[in-house]
Amino acid sequence: MIKELKLTNVGPAPAMALEFGKRLNLITGDNGLGKSFLLDIAWWSMTRKWPSEINPKLTVGKKVQPRHKGESAISFSFSGKVKDVSYESSYERREEAWTGSAGRPANPGLVLYAMTDGSFAVWDPARNYWQTRNGVDIQERRPAYVFAPDEVWQGLKADDGTVLCNGLIQDWGTWQKEKGEAFNHLVQVLKVLSPSDKEVLQPGDLTRISLDEARDIPTIRMPYGQDVPVVHASSGIRRVIALAYFLVWAWEEHRKAADLLQEEPTHQVVFLIDEVESHLHPSWQRSIIPALLSVMEKLTRRPDVQLITATHSPLIMASVEPVFDLVKDAWFDLDLEQGEVKLRQRPFVRQGDASSWLTSEAFDLESARSREAEAVLAEATQALSDPGFNANEAKKLDARLRRVLSDTDPFWMRWRFVAEKKGWL
Predict the structure, then answer these.
(1) Of 168, 176, 254, 350, whose CB is crowded by the most CB atoms within 10 A?
(2) Are 176 and 183 in contact (CB under 8 A)?
(3) Mind listing the pLDDT tens digit for each residue in 177-195?
(4) CA distance 332 to 424
(5) Neighbour count for residue 62 (Cβ, 10 Å)
(6) What is the spatial distance between Cα 363 and Cα 74, in angstroms, rounded to a whole number?
(7) Which Gene3D superfamilies does this chain map to (predicted)?
(8) SS (H, E, C) 167-181
(9) pTM as predicted
């Protein structure tokens, strides 16, 4: 589990520092202020490779560069398999690389990263950790498994053509035909990640979608009874079933590798998820975080899970209010102040609903209304205290208010009281 991250002359701000919660960590802020950047740094700190270094097909997960001339540093600490690890890395400009510690790196457990564009990455402590030969450490194992979006579905191959992963379509079909533990896990994970108890994601019958394609395609059984091929599912469903497959595949491969090594599977799992609400209907946004916190319980008996996610969604923030633990969880917010990015760990105060979160420090909106409504309300508020405002102007303003406000907007009570008192209406 990553514990601390400190950045100097790296990214959008001169300096940043985070002390992560042990369980849930939320990162909010406007576009371009560094949310995805922080997730990339967290991944690199635990795995020591940038995702796009391993898979050049990625358009995200690029190596970060120093902000300006001068010394730059990335300091981090995390709890490894044996002990806590702290390290400070500096940037070597001639090598265009961040320095690493000599010798065998620490083992952070299973690290999973779901990126915004549908790319996925996994660092497996059984398959990606250093190898020992004749008592000497050698780094021959693959540094991580990094999937471009299409590779999640169609499979991942090494440069020499070796199949590293069959991909969602083939694995799902094989698991379903075998009806073994992997498929049972997939069914359970899909159920946990479903939008509600009334709309449960469950596999339908395998199908063929083309006379020219000789492979079976998995389907999702929709609430209205139709089995829809996963390749034809909506963006939201594809996002969640890809995440479900990714979790099951990573865990199954880790468990098998641990068995070959005659080791116990790890109980430490770190999820990094960028824009967790991506493509999801509001009803789904309300359930996804609690689901992700509990999903590993379907795969292992003693999960120790840390979730770090960036979000733009007020519904996500509202949805975690019942589960947010002030001892184990943390909320970080990025703001632009006088031309400079500031990162703060804010106290998590329950807002009660999504509209209140929109006007909170997380999103900094003046109201949850439209821009047009905000402008008209500002005029109306000023008019209420303007002694020179007349009835003719009030009628025109009243008509504009009716075009932008609902009939039950609380401003009407104040407006009508003053308007009647002044004889405007």
Answers:
(1) 168
(2) yes
(3) 999 999 999 999 999 999 9
(4) 48
(5) 13
(6) 28
(7) P-loop containing nucleotide triphosphate hydrolases
(8) CHHHHHHHHHHHCCH
(9) 0.92
Outline where 207-352 has alpha helix (H): 235-260, 282-294, 314-319
The DSSP string of 219-259 is: EEE-TTS-EEEGGGS-HHHHHHHHHHHHHHHHHHHHHHHHH
199 close to 242: Cβ distance less than 8 angstroms: no
Cβ-in-10-Å burial (0-12, 13-18, 19+) of 220 comes to buried
Q: How many residues are given for the chain?
A: 425
- Residue 278 · residue 239 · CB < 8 Å: yes
C-alpha torsion 260→149→155→165, nearest 10: 0
3-state secondary structure of 336: strand
H-run or E-run covering 415:
helix 411-422
With beta carbons less than 8 A apart as the criterion, state whether 31 and 97 touch.
Answer: no
Question: Rounded CA gap, 328 and 166, in Å?
Answer: 37
CB 87 within 8 A of CB 80: no
Measured CA to CA, the distance from residue 44 to residue 11 in angstroms comes to 14
**Coil, helix or strand for 28?**
strand
Give residue-wise pLDDT tens across range 287-340: 999 999 999 888 887 778 999 999 999 999 999 999 999 999 999 999 999 999
What's the one-letter identity of residue 370? Answer: S
Q: Which residues partner with 412 through β-bridges?
A: none
**Distance separating alpha carbons of residues 268 and 305, to the nearest angstrom:** 6
- Is 411's pLDDT higher than 80? yes
Closest CA to 288 of 269, 306, 315: 315
Amino acid occupying residue 324: F
> pLDDT tens digits, residue range 205-246?
999 988 888 889 999 999 888 999 999 999 999 999 999 999
